[in-house]
Specification:
439 residues; mainly alpha; Growth Hormone, Chain: A; two-stranded antiparallel sheet; 17 helices; 1% strand
Length: 439
């Protein structure tokens, strides 16, 4: 059966769970490609590249990846999620091989940008697919699993490098060959497994697998133009953009910050950072499950944001002690930040998709693509400006003050998210009516 065949009935039970698992696998494979942190010293030495040059290349790839995310969202809505995902997963495997053959800085830069662009288009279809295959009673949990793809890829890259670098004589290219192979296998699995929902099936708003109502497709206005006139869209996007200042800081600079501010070893800093991510991953499913069971989104977003601001503020106060600070307290605060963030992401994703589907059922890709574009702007600013602020002030306290303010702004903006979309969907007489969930 061709992967272009549409599903004319909503998948239920084990079949739906398998489809969701394959979507998460697609994101995991895409995020795994290009994870160069474990072999970065080897790469820089082999190509004679400075860390500053690598940073500029990474910034350029972020820009192209952000633009690709928006373009991919457009294509996912117009052409089909799976029809875009499958070919671009194969292209990403080819781009990974292209990077593995890099023998100069220019070649590497081009390959890095190409890979970022191709991956950006491919990944853009995964969030709409999560929405398509998940009723509201399980949507926050599904998006929590989706978030595991990108975070888990960091752990996999480190584990694979640790296990295989010695076998391949410490060649950084070996990791890219492994990534390309994984991408190729993943693309085959996705092509053989995933199907797009037929438009009439995709447009249904579902509370459970068997309870649904239909939403009128607005006529005469473009969906995205209609969406951006809604306050709910902008409050969601701005809230998550503010939160990405903290997430990007932790992802890119957590170990470096701990080493420089608290004078711990790289090994200890890595262990502390791993505890942060593990606590975030483990508790994200717990909070997402509660969000789905209660059908409340805003409560978890605001509560998690306030808790994150409290823990970041406490961490900022501790930074003044420098090397005299207790490592145990640092770990406790890192765990607290990780748990607080775990409460926000799944409910935010679910809330965003639910508001979008009631405004217009056919623009999930474009909505998530525009969100991706704006979020990446904040991530890029964080990656570029954090080292400059630290260098100018001689420490991480000033930058973490900025992070703390951004976290507070997330909580404030999340509190402005409307509890309902303000538009009651039309109930299809041929489907069971469902009540609108509270946020």
């Amino acid at each position: 059966m061709s992967y272009r065949t549409l599903l004319t009935e909503y998948p239920v039970g084990a079949r739906r769970r398998v489809l969701l698992a394959v979507v998460v696998l697609a994101l995991f494979i895409s995020a795994f490609e290009g994870q160069l942190a474990p072999v970065l010293p080897l790469l820089l030495d082999d190509l004679g590249m400075s860390l500053k040059t690598y940073g500029l290349i990474t910034a350029a790839s972020l820009i192209f990846g952000a633009l690709a995310g928006y373009l991919g969202g457009e294509l996912a809505d117009r052409v089909g999620r799976v029809r875009i995902l499958v070919p671009f997963m194969f292209l990403s495997a080819a781009a990974c091989l292209f990077m593995a053959t890099a023998d100069s800085v220019a070649h590497f830069a081009l390959a890095r940008i190409v890979l970022a662009f191709v991956e950006g288009v491919a990944v853009a279809g995964t969030q709409p697919l999560i929405r398509d295959f998940t009723p509201r009673m399980g949507r926050a949990q599904a998006f929590a699993f989706w978030s595991w793809g990108s975070v888990g890829a960091n752990f996999l890259a480190a584990a694979v490098a640790s296990a295989t670098l010695g076998v391949f004589d410490n060649q950084w290219r070996s990791q890219l060959f492994i990534m390309a192979g994984a991408a190729l296998v993943g693309a085959v699995v996705v092509a053989l497994t995933l199907r797009d929902l037929a438009p009439e099936v995709r447009r249904a708003v579902r509370l459970t697998e068997h309870e649904a109502h239909s939403v009128e497709v607005p006529q005469g206005r473009k969906g995205l133009r209609l969406l951006v006139t809604h306050r709910a869209f902008w409050t969601h996007v701005l809230a998550m953009s503010f939160l990405y200042v903290l997430l990007a800081t932790m992802n890119a600079y957590a170990q470096t910050m701990l080493v420089q501010q608290f004078d711990v070893s790289v090994r200890v800093a890595s262990a502390m950072t791993m505890v942060f991510w593990l606590s975030n991953l483990a508790l994200s499913l717990v909070f997402a499950r509660f969000s789905d069971r209660t059908q409340r989104r805003k409560t978890f977003m605001v509560g998690g944001g306030v808790a994150a601001a409290v823990f970041v503020g406490a961490f900022l106060a501790l930074m003044g002690q420098g090397s005299e600070a207790s490592s145990s307290v640092v770990i406790v605060l890192f765990v607290g930040i990780g748990v607080a963030l775990a409460a926000t992401f799944g409910p935010w994703m679910a809330s965003f998709s639910e508001h979008v589907e009631e405004v217009h059922p056919d623009i999930q890709g474009r909505a998530f693509g525009l969100n991706h574009l704006l979020n990446r702007t904040f991530i890029l600013a964080t990656v570029l400006f954090a080292p400059r602020v630290v260098e100018a002030t001689g420490g991480w306290e000033r930058w973490m003050t900025i992070v703390w303010v951004a976290t507070i702004l997330f909580a404030v903006t999340a509190a402005l998210v409307p509890s309902t979309t303000g538009r009651r969907p039309r109930v299809d007489t041929s489907a069971e009516a469902v009540t609108q969930p509270a946020s």
